[in-house]
Backbone:
């Protein structure tokens, strides 16, 4: 019933081709950098959406998974010269394990209680990493310069490879989300989001399905984290483990439309350019103006279209039925 | 009306009862919500549980369906002990239930709601949809399958909740006040539905306040009062019992029915 129609597929392809050709039209680094951020935050928002939008676990601790991904691959690369691609997978797995370990004791927490627990979790990870000598503590880690190649996941002369790698990551996460949303799992997640009681009487093992949601989300978020480390080549707790990143991920998803597949990407496509452009244009005059615009957008959308920007498109046909 | 003494006949045949509660006790602090309750439900029966508010009917429901775990006592389903099983596991074994306050998934269509229930027995979406449509045809909601579940009337919401429970393909269906707040026509519709469900081989345990419905559908009635079972018998026996009249029905009912 939720199979993609021909129209939807062709629309997706057109958008994809436009995005793929974007660097031809905008060859300067800045627009490409903004687009990379759109993809990266888009991916994190898609990952958040799996647990937040579908399974109803409003996590404000996504940055912990992001940081774990970034730190794992970087630590392995610096200390053991492990290839970053392998580090990416290891980072994802560790993030998923940590997610399960923290998710299990939280399995009865709902709504704002879960949100509070997730904030605490993110802050615990940050504090811990800030004091962990092995991984550079507050000084952070600088990744070694290596020969530019796809294999090394490192490029110095151009942002283009990063652009396409991140785009591929985003598409992977969208495919994962699509399969989750249209499978048994997706319906069970939505039942859990509605209420644990209704899920239980439909025979859903609530604890187990919530753990699956958190683990998928953590794995994808950690992938974005590894990408960030390879892209910036430097990381410290204050850049990859701070609460505002988590908040931003949630805002992007909510603005775009939580509980829909494309919503979070649309949210990222709106908010990240606003955030980056206002930061560049206005940032030196007075920090915070970008956040004002940001806040106004969020307020408008939550008042007039709680289902997010995506709701504007998809709601028109369905509501009247 | 089904055979009234079916329970005893089958007991003599040493058949395993569908549901059995042995000395179920559930305390909340010092309050005995259920105090040493024994009862048996045979396959194919419709058993009603009645009693005043706070008698422990919903608590008993929750104990049987795994939402609460009794402090002492034993509950068996098809001869298997389920006392400390999780709710979803009990559901998988074939016990479905509804809630006093309707529980449906608000951002799904009617069909999707029922399909989510059907997914318990299917891993793929397609067969679950087929099953859901079959159930909706049975319960008479098929024409409203595309509607958003929150857009339904109360009667249809209750019907939807029953459909969701049926989609999990239960052997035993437990309905918690499925007939409260319905108009006369809707009430009759629900009574017919319950009878048809039983004809399809599902055993039913029903908590109900609407005596008219209880009289019509039940093979046996169990009466609870302040956590204790005070009476069990055929509907006709129950409504003339002094203790039941005093605790629950009131003198007027006696006058009207006799």
Residues:
């Amino acid at each position: 019933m939720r199979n993609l129609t021909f129209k939807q597929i062709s629309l997706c392809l057109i958008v994809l081709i436009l995005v793929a050709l974007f660097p031809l039209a905008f060859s300067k680094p800045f627009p490409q950098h903004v687009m990379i951020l759109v993809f990266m935050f888009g991916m994190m928002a898609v990952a958040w959406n799996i647990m937040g939008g579908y399974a109803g676990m409003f996590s404000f601790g996504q940055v912990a998974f992001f940081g774990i991904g970034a730190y794992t691959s970087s630590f392995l690369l610096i200390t053991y010269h492990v290839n970053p691609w392998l580090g990416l997978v290891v980072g994802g797995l560790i993030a998923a394990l940590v997610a399960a370990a923290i998710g299990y004791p939280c399995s009865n927490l709902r709504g704002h209680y879960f949100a509070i627990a997730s904030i605490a979790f993110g802050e615990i990870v940050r504090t811990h990493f800030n004091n962990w000598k092995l991984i550079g503590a507050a000084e952070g880690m600088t990744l070694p310069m290596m020969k530019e190649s796809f294999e090394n996941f490192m490029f110095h002369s151009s942002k283009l490879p990063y652009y396409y790698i991140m785009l591929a990551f985003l598409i992977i996460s969208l495919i994962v989300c699509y399969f989750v949303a249209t499978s048994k799992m997706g319906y069970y997640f939505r039942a859990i989001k509605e209420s644990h009681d209704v899920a239980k009487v439909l025979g859903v093992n609530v604890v187990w399905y919530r753990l699956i949601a958190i683990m998928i989300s953590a794995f994808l978020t950690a992938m974005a984290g590894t990408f960030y480390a390879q892209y910036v080549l430097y990381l410290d707790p204050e850049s990859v483990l701070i609460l505002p990143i988590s908040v931003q991920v949630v805002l992007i998803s909510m603005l775009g439309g939580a509980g829909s597949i494309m919503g979070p990407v649309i949210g990222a496509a709106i908010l990240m350019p606003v955030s980056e452009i206002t930061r560049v244009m206005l940032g030196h005059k007075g920090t915070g103006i970008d956040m004002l615009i940001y806040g106004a957008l969020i307020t408008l959308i939550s008042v007039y279209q709680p289902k997010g920007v995506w709701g504007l498109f998809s709601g028109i046909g369905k509501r009247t039925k | 009306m089904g055979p009234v003494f079916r329970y005893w006949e089958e007991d003599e045949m040493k058949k395993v009862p569908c549901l059995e509660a042995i000395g179920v006790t559930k305390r909340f602090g010092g309050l005995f919500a259920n105090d040493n309750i024994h009862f048996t439900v045979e396959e194919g029966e419709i058993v009603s549980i009645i009693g005043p508010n706070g008698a422990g009917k919903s608590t008993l429901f929750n104990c049987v369906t795994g939402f609460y775990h009794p402090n002492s006592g034993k509950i068996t389903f098809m001869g298997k002990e389920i006392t400390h099983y999780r709710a979803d596991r009990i559901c998988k074994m074939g016990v479905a239930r509804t809630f006093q306050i309707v529980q449906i998934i608000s951002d799904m269509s009617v069909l999707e709601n029922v399909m989510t229930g059907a997914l318990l027995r299917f891993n793929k979406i397609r067969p679950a949809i087929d099953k859901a449509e079959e159930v909706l045809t049975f319960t008479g909601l098929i024409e409203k399958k595309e509607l958003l579940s929150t857009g339904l009337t109360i009667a249809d919401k209750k019907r939807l909740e029953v459909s969701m429970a049926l989609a999990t393909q239960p052997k035993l269906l437990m309905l918690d006040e499925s007939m409260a707040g319905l108009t006369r026509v809707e009430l009759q519709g629900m009574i017919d539905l319950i009878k048809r469900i039983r004809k399809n081989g599902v055993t039913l345990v029903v908590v109900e306040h609407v005596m008219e419905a209880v009289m019509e559908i039940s093979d046996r009635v169990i009466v609870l009062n302040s956590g204790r079972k005070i009476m069990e018998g055929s509907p006709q026996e129950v409504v003339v019992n002094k203790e039941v009249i005093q605790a629950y029905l009131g003198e007027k009912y006696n006058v009207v029915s006799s």
